Amino acid sequence: MMKTPTNTYLLWLCLLSVTLIGCSNPVSKNIKRDTNSTLHSKTNTKHLLYQQLTEWQGVPYKLGGTSKKGIDCSAFVQKTFIDRFGFLLPRTTAQQAQFGTEINKRELQAGDLIFFKTSYKTHHVGIYVENDQFIHASTSNGVMLSSITNRYWKNAFWQARRVSY
């Protein structure tokens, strides 16, 4: 068989395609989720959030941190949703603030995300538990439980979002 430019071109095209397909990343990262994750009761959600608080309480705040050596607010929220609900949220506060459905503060339920504007350019995120309480990674006290009725948080409140998980 005589090699023609067309045959050579097709061979190289096939080899290139196979190589590129083999080197590509999957389109999305699928995390194995509990098939009943969308059916978590409010009581179970609260219980899971308190478990996360117990496990992480006192871990210091560290901007960009993602471990028990130090964690920032959005990483703590992301880690909580992965650990307790098997659901992957975006990593940053700005990304999380666009995720889910915005809800009225009066509609808060366990597991809702709550956002604060703590300065002109700085935003903060936590997870609502119950009775005006939320868990978060505080810059001054690390992972803790706080009240949205506290004057600081009340004045800084920006928005609440519900995530379907």
Automatic annotation (TrEMBL):
Keywords: Hydrolase, Protease, Signal, Thiol protease
Pfam family, one: NLPC_P60
Annotated TM spans: none
Residues covered by the NlpC/P60 domain: 43-164
PROSITE patterns according to UniProt: NLPC_P60, PROKAR_LIPOPROTEIN
GO MF terms, alphabetically ordered: cysteine-type peptidase activity
GO terms for biological process, alphabetical: proteolysis
Transferase listed as a keyword: no
Keyword Protease: yes
Taxonomic superkingdom: Bacteria
InterPro entries linked: Murein_DD/LD_carboxypeptidase, NLP_P60_dom, Papain-like_cys_pep_sf
Stated family: Belongs to the peptidase C40 family.
The protein's name: NlpC/P60 domain-containing protein
Organism: Pseudoalteromonas piratica
Lineage of the species this protein comes from: Bacteria, Pseudomonadati, Pseudomonadota, Gammaproteobacteria, Alteromonadales
